[in-house]
Write a structure and sequence with these properties.
mainly alpha, Arc Repressor Mutant, subunit A, 2 domains, 9 helices, 77% helix
């Protein structure tokens, strides 16, 4: 058999994830079988299992992509030599979350729900959430060092609060649907200005 390139390997892996995302979005995690994922991917079962050991591995990969996109936004902001004003930072972050709300964000809510039932998914969700919360905490530390926050700020607690506003936005956007990302970010910024 001819060997496939790394690019082809990544494309096939992504093909499986895209197919799984579509089936999970329609049916949820419990009602979706590996056979449905395999059929949606248009691959053989051996082809799919070459990339993923099972449904939980696929769920983990999808969850990592969702959180990775948000974490990347925070990391990009941390990569700047000079931290933009906190209001701008929050606006970029909330807009990123708004962008994924109708796609991967739907699955994020399912992952969080599934984490209440499945210990393996709970462990994975905790790891991914911890990575994102740490990135938000680093952002708060930099804002504090730059003088954008009051001197007496409890940095760790503020990082936890700002982190909670991220899934809070996603949940409201998916369930209620009437949120404006700019107004939400402006309200977060206004909360930071209260002294």
């Amino acid at each position: 058999m001819p060997r496939i390139s790394e690019r082809q390997r990544q494309a096939r892996r992504q093909q499986i994830l895209d197919a799984a995302r579509g089936v999970f979005t329609l049916n949820g995690f419990h009602a979706t079988s590996m056979d449905e994922i395999i059929a949606a991917a248009g691959m053989s079962s051996g082809g799919v299992y070459r990339y993923f050991s099972g449904k939980d591995a696929i769920i983990t990969a999808i969850a990592q992509e969702v959180v990775g996109g948000i974490t990347a936004t925070v990391s990009d902001l941390l990569g700047d030599d000079r931290l933009p004003p906190m209001g701008d930072v929050l606006r970029r972050l909330v807009i990123q979350i708004d962008t994924i709300a109708d796609g991967p964000g739907r699955l994020a809510l399912q992952v969080w729900g599934e984490a209440q039932r499945d210990p393996e998914i709970a462990r994975m969700a905790a790891v991914e959430a911890t990575v994102l919360r740490s990135a938000v905490l680093d952002l708060v530390r930099r804002a504090h060092t730059a003088g954008q926050l009051p001197e007496h700020t409890d940095i760790e607690a503020l990082g936890q609060v700002l982190f909670s506003l991220i899934p809070g936005y996603l949940m409201q956007k998916r369930i209620i649907g009437d949120l404006d990302p700019i107004r939400y970010a402006d309200a977060m910024d206004a909360m930071l200005q209260i002294r």
